[in-house]
Design a protein that fits this description.
Radius of gyration: 15 Å
Helix content: 25-40%
Strand order of the largest sheet: 1-2-3-4-5
Order of helices and strands: EEHEHHEHE
Structural class: alpha/beta
Strand content: 15-25%
Number of strands: 5
């Protein structure tokens, strides 16, 4: 069973355009935590892939309208090491077809904990983990 390190929920938008956003949060420590992070990504992907009752749809659809975003907090990563850490996470995803499929469909990103504490989760600090990558953005924009 998948158990994220933390969960995040927020409401985004204004007026009638408001929507509820959720995210699973994992932590990644370069070097010693690479295998642990890969295992957590695989567990999250198993939850994402799990079939619903009678084999129809996905099991998570009974709980959420859309699968929660996946946020990976980089602990102990220098600012200069963010690109390498994100590349390592993408490589781990490519090695597991289910994780790669999930990251192609589910918004996911990685950010340094120092940036998160100093600038907050809405700041453009999240580096997309999907295969297409992209520029850093706020967690609601992944």
């Amino acid at each position: 069973m998948y158990r994220p390190a933390a969960e995040l929920a927020d409401t985004a938008g204004t007026g009638e355009e408001r929507r509820r956003l959720r995210a699973f949060v994992e932590r990644h420590r370069p070097g010693v935590g690479a295998e642990e992070t890969a295992a957590q990504l695989a567990a999250c992907a198993a939850l994402w892939e799990q079939s619903g009752p009678g084999g129809r749809g996905r099991a998570w659809e009974r709980r959420w309208r859309s699968f929660p975003r996946l946020l990976v907090v980089l602990v102990g990563t220098a600012a200069a090491g963010v690109r390498s850490a994100v590349a390592d996470l993408r490589l781990a995803a490519e090695e597991n077809p289910v994780v790669a499929e999930m990251l192609a469909a589910v918004p996911a990103g990685a950010a340094r904990i120092e940036d998160l504490v100093q600038r907050g989760p809405a700041a453009p600090i999240w580096h997309p983990l999907g295969a297409r990558g992209g520029r850093a953005c706020g967690w609601t924009e992944l």
